[in-house]
Write a structure and sequence with these properties.
It is a single chain. The two termini are 32 Å apart. The chain has a domain at 4-87 and 171-207. By secondary structure, it is mainly α. The protein contains 10 helices and no strands.
């Protein structure tokens, strides 16, 4: 008996069949993503991975002749390319900021105390000294991280970035989001080429 879950998963995999058939090139296919919400691609990618696991398990022995396998690979590669092309630079920028901030004397002092308390808590747990564990945890909770040179803590920076990611995921894709540009990083170009290969393989099969 076919389960509703299986139908829903397969519907996500074949969702972009018409986009593929109407596209002469991979860039044409990318352009057809304009107006689609990034969240829709991410959800479809998750469903497609579920499809592969349900059908082939975790053995990586997928049948290369299975069109749904090829569609799933394309959808996953496409989603990775578009998603990380956008949010990767934000993470890179955050790493630059926090690396600089972590060199300040204030941060180094806080980090040393924080790590020391973590170690003491672990030792107290092993010794079964719950009273000391509670005392050390309370001390750790009072140990607020310093404001960085940028004026924010690491957690505040992360919250800002997560807000940007959430906004992007709930927005409709634009041409700038999907097409290659001069600002793409080497890893973005690699993901583009990987998705392009999957598209061309699948396109040849569907057009045959």
């Amino acid at each position: 008996m076919i389960k509703l879950k299986d139908i829903l998963i397969e519907n996500e995999i074949v969702k972009y069949d018409s986009n593929i058939l109407k596209s002469s090139t991979f860039d044409d296919f990318l352009k057809s993503m304009v107006g689609i919400k990034m969240k829709s691609l991410l959800d479809g990618s998750s469903f497609s991975r579920m499809y592969l696991i349900n059908k082939y398990g975790f053995s990586n022995d997928e049948d290369d002749e299975d069109l749904n396998v090829l569609k799933s690979r394309l959808l996953n590669a496409l989603t990775d390319y578009i998603n990380f092309k956008k949010i990767g630079p934000w993470r890179d920028a955050l790493d630059v900021i926090t690396k600089s901030d972590s060199e300040t004397p204030e941060y180094k002092e806080w980090h040393t105390k924080f790590m020391s308390l973590n170690k003491q808590i672990l030792l107290a747990k092993r010794a079964g000294n719950e009273e000391l564990v509670a005392k050390l945890r309370a001390e750790k909770d009072k140990l607020s991280p310093p404001k960085y040179l940028s004026g924010k803590t690491y957690d505040e920076h992360m919250t800002d970035m997560q807000d940007l990611v959430k906004k992007f995921h709930n927005s409709k894709l634009t041409l700038q989001d999907v097409l290659p540009n001069s600002d793409d990083r080497p890893q973005d170009k690699d993901r583009y080429e990987k998705a392009k290969r999957y598209f061309e393989t699948l396109k040849d099969r569907l057009d045959a």
